[in-house]
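Duplicate of #3305? Posting structure anyway:
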């Protein structure tokens, strides 16, 4: 193997941080769980089609199991009866996990101010990005993906709880009994 000349060495050296490489890898391989509740799911499916092409973000692979996914797209109306199942899916996801609330119903209960409808998914699980609309267009969901990517790129290995030497004991959210 021939030795490198002094001119070739600067072209073959890359300086970066561990955080930048780690976050770049996670940003480009965020896999959503296959999960749809109402009409917003149709817009989510449209965002995965060729016209909007979420494959450019590395998100085209909708996983059938929450244990293989790290992004939960909550889209549509969440009833009190469905809330424990959404919570179960969230708790089965491995860290790091992210949540995007898509649509008015997922964000605030939408037009359904009823005892049977959860008034926002953030009552039971933490939400990272909100995508408003009824239903939001696929372009809005793509913008939500970009906002999530910005959030991922700002994280540091030193501060995230799932990479700590001693894991922070964060209790998993539990379903609350219905109030009478």
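Output from current build:
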């Amino acid at each position: 193997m021939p030795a490198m000349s002094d001119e070739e060495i600067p072209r073959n050296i890359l300086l970066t941080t561990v955080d930048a490489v780690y976050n770049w890898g996670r940003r480009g391989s965020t896999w959503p769980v296959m999960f749809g509740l109402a009409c917003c799911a149709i817009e989510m499916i449209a965002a995965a089609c060729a016209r909007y092409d979420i494959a450019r973000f590395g998100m085209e692979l909708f996983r059938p199991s929450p244990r293989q996914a790290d992004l939960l797209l909550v889209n549509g109306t969440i009833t009190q009866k469905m809330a424990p199942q959404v919570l179960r899916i969230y708790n089965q996801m491995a860290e790091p996990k992210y949540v995007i609330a898509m649509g008015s119903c997922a964000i605030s209960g939408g037009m359904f101010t009823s005892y049977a409808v959860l008034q926002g998914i953030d009552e039971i699980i933490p939400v990272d990005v909100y995508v408003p609309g009824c239903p939001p267009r696929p372009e809005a969901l793509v913008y939500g993906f970009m906002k999530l990517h910005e959030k991922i790129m700002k994280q540091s290995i030193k501060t995230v709880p799932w990479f700590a030497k001693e894991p922070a004991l964060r209790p998993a959210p539990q379903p609350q009994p219905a109030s009478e």
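Confirmed duplicate; merging threads. Residues 31 and 69 are 5 Å apart (CA to CA). The chain has a mean pLDDT of 83.
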